[in-house]
Tetratricopeptide repeat protein
Amino acid sequence: MRHPILVSVCVAGIAALSACDKTIDKNAVDRKFQDSLNVIDESNLNDVMLSAGDPNEAVTYFERASANAPERLDLKRGLAASLVKAKRIPEAKRAWAEVVADPASTPGDRVELADTLIRANDWAEAEQVLDAIPPTVETFKRYRLEAMIADGNKEWDKADSFYETAVGLTTQPANVLNNWGYSKLSRGDFAGAERLFIDAIRQDRSLFTAKNNLVLARGAQGNYTLPVVPMTQIERANLLHTLGLAAVKRGDVQIGKGLMREAIETHPQHFEEAARSLDALEASVTN
């Protein structure tokens, strides 16, 4: 009779220990789960602050958060990115340099530093930073910056190669196509530039800089008709003015004056800039 009792006691003891283990495990899991939730919530808050309407508010948030947790690299990144967004470039340079100096930094951080250096017009230093990044790091932003630096160095073949690669690495290539077209325009390859600007507008119909550059490329070739692209009435007036200036630059002054008059008539309000340009032309002809 003693054996069943002993077995029962042992079983009860094992069950009690098992219950204790489960309680301990549950508490540990609860803490880990809550910690995970806190990290997720903070990550969401970081993302919200980076996309906030006032970038200076984001700077204040990340400065305070970084001061409270100086070991957190993600907060340092947030501070550097928010400083760039706030156009506080000298501070952003120092912030990204601090991020890059951290042993846990990534090649992507170096790309961001190079981008900030270019914004600060420190092209030579930006080139050094990019050169130190392994060639296996193939991102859209890296190649876009490489293209811009090659442009500045007048290394046209390299620039074209980098631009082409960058275009293939993004689903929104309009701006890089526009930059590539402007590079062609500056080299005197007006036909090549025209094709790239048309491609940029096809990708983003609202990109006015590409429309304006397209008119410059056409005007440089003596083509003074507006391209068939989507445009508002105000955009049409501005493009006519640009085309008029391009005509004058080529020596076709009378055509330029006619285009400026058309720009003034087209604009829904008073077109002060075109009116001044026309007045200056009229005065120079009279003199």
